[in-house]
Amino acid sequence: MATLGLAAYGYGIRYEYGIFNQKIRDGWQVEEADDWLRHGNPWEKARPEYMLPVHFYGRVEHSATGAKWVDTQVVLALPYDTPVPGYMNNTVNTMRLWSARAPNDFNLRDFNVGDYIQAVLDRNLAENISRVLYPNDNFFEGKELRLKQEYFVVAATLQDIIRRFKASKFGSTDSVRTVFDSFPDQVAIQLNDTHPAMAIPELMRIFVDIEKLPWNKAWDITKRTFAYTNHTVLPEALERWPVDLVEKLLPRHLQIIYEINQRHLDHIASLFPNDVDRLRRMSLIEEGGTKRINMAHLCIVGSHAVNGVAKIHSEIVKTQVFEDFAALEPEKFQNKTNGITPRRWLLLCNPGLAELIAEKIGEDYVRDLSQLTKLHEFVDDDLFIREVAKVKQENKVKFALYLEKEYKVKINPSSMFDVHVKRIHEYKRQLMNCLHIITMYNRIRRDPAKVFVPRTVIIGGKAAPGYHMAKMIIKLINAVAHVVNNDPVVGSKLKVIFLENYRVSLAEKVIPATDLSEQISTAGTEASGTGNMKFMLNGALTIGTMDGANVEMAEEAGEENLFIFGMRVEDVTELDREGYNAQKYYDQLPELKKAVDQIKSGFFSPKDPDLFKDVVNMLFHHDRFKVFADYEAYVKCQEKVSELYLNSKAWTKMVIRNIAAAGKFSSDRTIKEYARDIWHVEPSDLKIPPPNEPRDAVEDKTPNGTAA
């Protein structure tokens, strides 16, 4: 947004401990706290002058003047500002992260027995709010501390936004603005998933209870201010907060949510009389068992725009997940395909390739990635082909040295680097990759003399600490790696590495060195993915399903320039209809049977033959993601990959076609679409003069009436 000249603030929590550091001990994931602030953070600046109170608990008093939330507990939100500079345009936006602080009279103001020491120690209870990031991936865990975190960031941020709105003189004659009519024209708030959904009732509370706006006016302003981005369709990931918990922690907000819901359901009942099932499906409150608030429904009802993050995902959002809402307001639903920043994901991590591209098409592509299409002219240029291959080889040698240093495994840099790095989750199907590794291993053992295209398979990613199956998958990969890497028959033909503690800084090393990018989620489960785009831009070829942004990558580059395999969304739906029977595939595919039998019999865990029984049992009896159904197509597709890899020139030409087609996947394009279609602001390519230049030199160049 800074690069596009958009005035923006990014708000979040300043967690003391971020995502855990992953250690692998004896093949198992072990978590360690990430004490990232231990040595200080030179980029942040604490701003105590903007500290704000956030309220919890208490009760609601109703009177003639309206509702009052009283007897609350207060936690202070201390902002830390980090500058976010645009690319070479002297524009800097601010990321403001909130840290929780106890007020100085915490536990001392109540008619307190006088245990001063305990009262001071208890300050930790308040300050725990910003202590640690919840590490769940695509999974909702309804914990009170998590709800506190969600409301904490929302309440502090909205106070900050309103303070700034009231202080700004733009389009107003008042010394302090109290009229909110222009609020949605001045302020746009994008909800990044449902985690900040409490912002909707919180803004209503501010408008109705504090600013004394009539409900309908407040609701109109609120809806025009908010927009919601959906990030997942997995049902276990959707936030559904128990009503009892919200009532205890945020009693006024629950009342407001009930009121929003009542008016929402009245409207639907007027359009669809007697359709009680539709009312049940569309309610913000889920009855049956414990009453819960469906936060996605709250976001849809309280926003003027809803978007998915890839074409296929946005279609699934419209036609399956929220079909009733889309039928009601089709114009509300949009697509904004994700993108990645070419500054980090090309220039910074792969300077060799970035320079090579600049030599051919100039340097402007860095700000306008669509210019990469110019590379199509050089797809048959023998010198360019050799240079692209050379840069890749240099990156591989460099990464091979890193691996040998860190993992004490001898890597063959001329082998195909086959890379599968992302969070460990059943839907991402690292297990399918694992079955392919075992299949390759068995083929080498069966016929050691046969020509085999050597591979180094690199798998990395963190498992959520409470996700048993994901942790078993990590252990299995490491167990298979141990057998494969120590078998003299295999030698340098096949090596398997589990990359420890996969994170952005490690991605910057591995992605430029990758030949084959694994994007193999079950069709209809990966909202978009962005790693897929990073690999494409860095000269890797993709093996993948028609899922997430893979679909658009194939559309841009031509399906013949990706290794697309497996079921499409329609096939998955059809298979669900007839019932998925894993046993059938096991019985029909001898290589699959052999691989599964080896896992089951303890071939990879001789000291504990039953170690992987849970994994095998899942694959046969409750595999929601249908690994066996795509196994055969996957293995056959991998054979095509190996065949092409033998022809270095043909491989590199396909690489060039992919890079030339990667322009769509710049975050610049994504953000321009949000700006124009949702926030109604225009990006600007004005370069602000640096502080050492006199300002008046450019004043006449500034168009009249621009403001963000």
Question: What does this entry show, briefly?
Answer:
Helices cover 44% and strands 15% of the residues.
List keywords for this structure.
alpha/beta, five-stranded mixed β-sheet, 28 helices, globular, disordered C terminus
Portion in beta strands = 5-15%
Lateral strand order in the biggest sheet: 19-18-17-20-21-22
Number of strands: 22
Oligomer: single chain
Broad shape: globular
Percent in helix:
40-55%
Account of the 3D structure:
α20 links the parallel β21 (541-544) and β22. 44% of the residues lie in helices and 15% in strands. It has 28 helices and 22 strands. The termini are close together. α5 runs antiparallel to α6. Mean pLDDT is 96; it is low at 697-708. It is globular. A six-stranded parallel β-sheet has the order 19-18-17-20-21-22, with helices on both faces. Strands 1, 4, 5, 8 and 9 form a five-stranded mixed β-sheet that branches. With 708 residues, the protein is α/β, with parallel strands linked by helices. GO terms for molecular function: glycogen phosphorylase activity; pyridoxal phosphate binding. Its cofactor is pyridoxal 5'-phosphate. Residues 693-702 have a biased composition (Basic and acidic residues).
